[in-house]
Prior knowledge:
By secondary structure, this protein is of the alpha+beta class. It has two domains: 7-125, no CATH class; 133-232. The chain is 27% helix and 41% strand. It has six helices and 14 strands. The strands form four sheets. It has a five-stranded mixed β-sheet, covered by helices on one side. A four-stranded mixed β-sheet has the order 2-9-8-7. Strand 3 and strand 4 (38-40) form a beta hairpin.
Amino acid sequence: MIQGLCQRCFSEVPLLQLPAEVEVVLCKRCGAVRIGRQWQLQSSGASVEDAVRQAVLHVVRVTRDTEAGRKFLRPEEAGVQVEVNPRLKEGLVDVKASGRVHHLQVNPKVEEATLKLNLKYTTCNLCSLKRARHYEAILQLRDFPSRETRLRVQEEMERLAAQSSKVKPGNFIAEVKEHHGGLDFYLSSVSLARMMAARLKESFGATTVESAKLIGQTKNGRRKYRVSILARFK
C-alpha cells in the first residue's frame, strides 16, 4: 500500500507535469536557444531538434512523493528518465518519461505526452551587439616598425580575440579601422582590450598607456567609462 492506495491505483498518479504548449526561441544568426531569460550557445553541429530538446527539458517537471509531501522536480533530481522527440514539420513534441512517483512503487511508471510546439526566431543579445558594432574599449596601435610587423600583429590580435570568444562569447572585435598609419581595434569589453595589450607587450615589446573617458551612466546610476589603450612599438 502507498498512501492508502494499492500499487495499481497509485500508478494512476500522473508522473509528468507539462504545459500544453511550449515556446522555443532561437537566434536566427547564431542558432543560440533562449532558456528562461538566458541565451545559450549551441555546440558546433547542433540541430534545431537539439535546441528544442534542451528547451523542453528545461520546462519538464515530474511528480515525486516524499515524507515532506508532493513535489514537482526536474527529472534529474527525481531520477526519472525523459526522452524528447521533436516533430518540427507537425509543430509537435513527444515526451516520454519513465520513473517512480513514490519509492515504494514496484514498477516504474511509463508516461507519454504530446505538446504543441511554437518555434520562433529572433536575434539574441550577443548578435544584436555584434550587428550594432558595440564596443566598450579601443586598442590603438601606433608606430609599427614595418609593414610585416603590422600584419603579424593584426593576425595575432584577431587570433587572440577569436580564442577568447570561445571561452567568453561576449568578447569580440566590433571593428578595425586604419588611423594615422596605425590600427584601431574597437572591442566589446575592457577585459579583452587589456588581454590584447598584455600580449602586445609580451610578444612584440610594445609600450602601453591606458586612459578612460566618462560617457554616461548605467541604468542603476553608476558611471560608465570607455577605455582607450594606446600601444606603441619600439
